[in-house]
Amino acid sequence: IADVKYNNENGLQIPVGNGGSTKRYTWTQTIEECTVLIGVPKVLRGKDLDVKITSQTLTVKSKLPLQEEETEPRTFVEGKLVEKIRPDDSSWTMEGGVVIVTLEKSKPSFWKTVIEGDEEIDTELVDNRRHIDEYDDATQAKIRKIIFDQEQYHKGGPTSDEILGQKSTTIPPLPPGVEYIDKKKLDEEEAKKKKKQNEDGSK
């Protein structure tokens, strides 16, 4: 899988946005919910999809075969969830070729994967803070950049790095904080953080 890094000691994926990637989907998580991003053909609309979310399973299919040689609807994701969820509080939406499924966890925890049998992340490397707002500005920016770029990848759109270098009015707006990803600003933020840590440590 492109752009996925692994822990050399145990072979598990190093978390990105506290989640990971498989050939079928990319996912991120907080301690209370999991967001699954599934790339589908851009010709499809929400009404063309059959999405089923139960307390223990997730299924995303097309309602009809997508090509003449196909005899069955195409399955994008199907399987048993690694942990139980609250289906009534979970939801899905679709944006430009990406199905975004939000799963509300039955109990606060960090998952090692979404569907049983899929590649797992190293949960020891997951940051256990509950909300992105609890991070410092530079870390928030990194997380938002990762999530934004994953969505853009599935949509076939420009990455945040490409957007930062463009002046066109047709580019999508960046999520809050991604402007910190400008290398100079990010270096300044990291330097401030290290300086503060050194000052606190010398007290």
Q: What does it look like?
A:
This protein is of the alpha+beta class. The chain is 21% helix and 21% strand. The strands form two sheets. A five-stranded antiparallel beta sheet has the order 1-2-3-8-7, covered by helices on one side. A three-stranded antiparallel beta sheet has the order 4-5-6, with no helix packed on it. The longest helix is centred in the last third of the chain and has 19 residues, at 137-155. 24% of the residues are buried. The mean pLDDT is 79.
The order of strands across the largest sheet is 1-2-3-8-7
The secondary-structure element order is: EEEEEEEEHHH
For the residues shown, what is the average pLDDT?
Answer: 79
- Through-space gap between termini: 46 Å
Shape: globular
Report the sheet with the most strands, covering strand number, pairing sense and barrel closure.
Answer: 5 strands, antiparallel
Q: Give the number of helices.
A: 3
Q: Total strand count, please? A: 8
Backbone structural class? alpha+beta
Q: Quote the beta fraction.
A: 15-25%
Helix content estimate: 10-25%
Task: Show unreliable segments.
Answer: none
Radius of gyration: 19 Å
List keywords for this structure.
globular; single chain; alpha+beta; 3 helices; 203 residues; 3-stranded antiparallel sheet; 5-stranded antiparallel sheet
Summarize the structure.
The protein is of the alpha+beta class. 21% of the residues lie in helices and 21% in strands.
Topology record:
Elements: E1 20-21, E2 26-29, E3 33-39, E4 49-53, E5 57-62, E6 75-80, E7 91-95, E8 98-104, H1 137-155, H2 160-164, H3 183-201
Antiparallel strand pairs: 1-2, 2-3, 3-8, 4-5, 5-6, 7-8
